Amino acid sequence: MEKRVALELRGRNPSQIKELNLDNCRSTNIIGLTDEYTNLEILSLNNVGLTTLKGFPTLPKLRKLELSDNRISNGLHFLNGCKKLTHLNLSGNKIKDLQTLKPLEEFESLRNLDLFNNDVTNIEDYRSKVFALHPSLKYLDGYDKDDREGEDSDAEEEDGEEMNGNNDSDEEDLDINLGRLVIDDESLSERLPEESPSLLVSLYTVYGLLFHMGYLLQNVDDEEDDEEISLSAVYNSNLEEESSASSLYAGSDVEEEEDDDVDDGELKAQDGEDNTHEESTRGKKRKHEDEEDN
């Protein structure tokens, strides 16, 4: 057990530990647990093999103690250093008589006690006698005095703490004046028929909202149609501009061809004139040479 305690510490100070689980670590008595665990609230020692509680430390804040499936037959007075204990599980032990449970009278906050699978449960009127022995006890073996199954033990412990005044500071912080929240039933009954809208008015309101929504949706559709029309018009105008531009380009090409033809004709005419002039000149020259020969 001592090694298991050191392992569960994980290098922390014992005063920092609030919950400690030592289940299934084999030991017949308490070893390794000391009074240094001043803030320990939950301790579990199930199936350890304990035969005695001698040496159990003083744990002033311990609320829940699990000791099931051990071999404890007496010595519950060794738990007297745990005055705030509210939950004690001793099921599966060797407790045989009510006298062994006598030391539990010291625990004024004890609300949940489990003695299932102990010989003491075979005593006649066992339940009524245990409840009489411990007036603060609310649940025995998971059931209350009327054999109703108990609620979650943790929730019960929190309720017990509130009843014991552990949350007084919280209640002071939440001190709220609720005077203005008081409702006059007569005035409320008088005003309700006048102030509450009738079913017909509600229907008209819903109808008006639906009509308005339909109108808005229709406007949105019209705008989309207008956008489609405008886009088609732009597309058509672009086509017209492209066609006109292409016709202009074709006309300019024709004019250029005609200009080229005219230029060719002028060149040919000019060549003809030049040829005629050369021939006339040659004729005159020959005539002049003939006259000189004669």
Explain the overall architecture:
This protein has 294 residues and is mainly alpha-helical. Helices cover 47% and strands 6% of the residues. Strand 5 (112-114), helix 2 (126-133) and strand 6 form a beta-alpha-beta unit.
Derived from helix and strand composition plus strand pairing, the structural class reads: mainly alpha
**What is the number of helices?**
6
- Which strand-content bin applies to the residues? 5-15%
What value does the Rg take, in angstroms? 56 Å
Major sheet description: 6 strands, parallel
Task: Report the strand count.
Answer: 6
The low-pLDDT segments are 159-196
The averaged pLDDT comes out at 75
- Share of residues in helices: 40-55%
What is the first-to-last residue Cα distance? 165 Å
- The geometry reads as elongated
* Order of helix and strand elements from N to C terminus: HEEEEEHEHHHH
Strand order of the largest sheet: 1-2-3-4-5-6
